[in-house]
Amino acid sequence: MGRKIHEAIHALETIHFTFSASTSCISSTPPPPPPLHQLPLHAVSDPATIQPSTTSMLSSLVRLPPPPTDIDIPIEDIFSSALGLIFTDDLRNQHGDPGSSVVYKSREYGDIELRLTDPAGENTRKLFSHYLWNAGVQMAEYVGGEEGRWSVKGEKVLELGAGTGLASIVCALAGAEEVVISDYPAPEILANISINVNKNVSQPKLSKTSVRGHEWGVLKDDFSSTYANSFSRIIAADCLWMPHEHRSLAQSMLHFLAHNDKAMVWVIAGFHTGRAKLAPFFDAVREEGLEIESIWERDVDGHEREWRKERDGGKEDVTGGKRWLVVAVLRRRRRVGG
Predict the structure, then answer these.
(1) In sequence order, what are the residues at sequence separation of 6 or more whose Cβ sits closer than 8 angstroms to the Cβ of residue 117?
(2) Which pLDDT tens digit goes with each residue over 13-64?
(3) What residues have CB less than 8 Å from 33, skipping those under 6 apart?
(4) Could you give the 3-state DSSP secondary structure of residue 183?
(5) Would you give the DSSP letter of residue 38?
(6) Which partner from 18, 107, 136, 264 sits 20 to 30 angstroms from 150, CA to CA?
(7) Cβ proximity of 298 and 304 under 8 Å
């Protein structure tokens, strides 16, 4: 019974994805505005004029894999993963379930199937690396689809808090010189990332990709010593929801970032855990020696607006929290007169 329902959901997702792709080509709705950093402040879209879409551009890029033929899947697991299709006003900002798989539909590299880790204990479960989050999907879209500003070709890339490893996998496919994928040193998390890398990256790019354990702010171990100031690009997606870790995360970013005027840190995070939780991170990075080159907000359909530490008097609704992401480009602080 469960397998048949899963087959129906998979068919529904296929129709949903195809319809989303086709309607995006014929819609009379104007395309999203250019990136915020290319616009004067007064030209940024007024959020009051942005009409919510029941079809999220980011969500349409993530699908369940074809159903297995040899096992019967619990109905409750299938239902929970299909809420965004059944109730179209329920925006999905996380995808999959622990131990399951999802497929990211890359425009450049085809289907990338990702296994989601099944946390072994409560402490590991609290890291929420067993889902694919919209911030990770957006990061993959940026590094895999844009030449120029977000290009990683020929760059040395480190991902912090990689989760499924999606963004790093896309970096490897996009021609990065080296990719180091890091997350909290829990064996099941690192093993799961390795499975995803080996499944989706082939030689010779695979030989340039490695998976390492790293606890933010722990900078005296062999890994941290070996790779100090080594990376021209550092990426972090949905890593800002723990305020007590902000300073440690900023310290790791600065430690691994190359002493190079062109070296950058790219950060994307969703507001689903509350804007007030992640906003202080951008104060912490300044205190630790980084500077913010640009920062803006982007929703799941590609609309952009200016960054604000607080909106709606601190009473931002849940749907808005799921819909919007903060995107930031950081650099090592430039020395005055240097």
Answers:
(1) 98, 99, 129, 130, 164, 188, 189, 191, 192
(2) 554 444 444 444 434 344 444 444 443 333 344 443 344 443 468 888 988 7
(3) 39, 43, 44, 45, 303, 304
(4) strand
(5) G
(6) 18
(7) yes
